[in-house]
Design brief:
Helices cover 21% and strands 30% of the residues. It has four helices and eight strands; from the N terminus they run βββαβαβαββαβ. It has helices spanning 54-68, 90-98, 103-108, 145-148, and strands spanning 11-18, 28-34, 43-49, 76-82, 101-102, 125-130, 133-138, 155-159. The protein has a six-stranded mixed sheet with strand order 1-2-3-4-6-5. The chain has a two-stranded antiparallel ribbon with strand order 7-8. Helix 1 links the parallel strand 3 and strand 4. It is globular, with a radius of gyration of 15 Å. The protein starts with 10 loop residues before the first strand and ends with a strand.
Length: 160
């Protein structure tokens, strides 16, 4: 479903969840459990690609929240990807249902515009965290990223 996760830490488990609702739009959620050295609790990393349709996105946000709520409350969580949420409705849902906070909103007060990559106008992509400290959202230069995807990349310095 277009999701991938690269990690410098060992990936101790992974599962790809089909979160497609109906019709031809295929959507997914990849959950990987990472175990950094010298850390008691794992880190849960979840990559998502949500629907273009608002009603489908709301159902998918509930599925993301349900998954996050199965994790140990002490575990760190990062949920990132293409939320297709130009109306910025995901923030309230994920905060109230899964205690997730968006890193750019937490640090600067607003989500970062990422689409289209050449001249970003919409805030479609996000990084949400739980049990993590956001030190700095990282603003990457436009090139060469705008040649690699139609979405501008997001990055953040996060500690657990």
């Amino acid at each position: 479903h277009g999701n991938a996760l690269l990690s410098k830490f060992p990936i101790i488990s992974c599962e790809n969840h089909n979160i497609s609702i109906s019709g031809p739009e295929r959507r997914g959620m990849l959950h990987c459990t990472l175990q950094p050295p010298n850390r008691k609790h794992p880190i849960h990393a979840v990559c998502v690609h949500l629907s273009l349709q608002e009603s489908h996105r709301q159902q998918q946000l509930q599925r993301v929240s349900d998954l996050v709520n199965t994790f140990n409350p002490k575990d760190a969580v990062v949920v990132a990807g293409d939320f297709n949420d130009w109306r910025e409705r995901a923030h309230d849902v994920l905060r109230s249902k899964a205690d997730l906070h968006e890193v750019f909103v937490q640090s600067t007060g607003q989500a970062l515009k990422t689409f289209p990559a050449n001249m970003p106008l919409l805030t479609l992509d996000r990084i949400y965290v739980r049990n993590a400290c956001v030190h700095t959202p990282i603003y990457l230069p436009r090139t060469p990223w705008n040649k690699l995807s139609d979405h501008a990349p997001l990055a953040a310095d996060v500690s657990f």
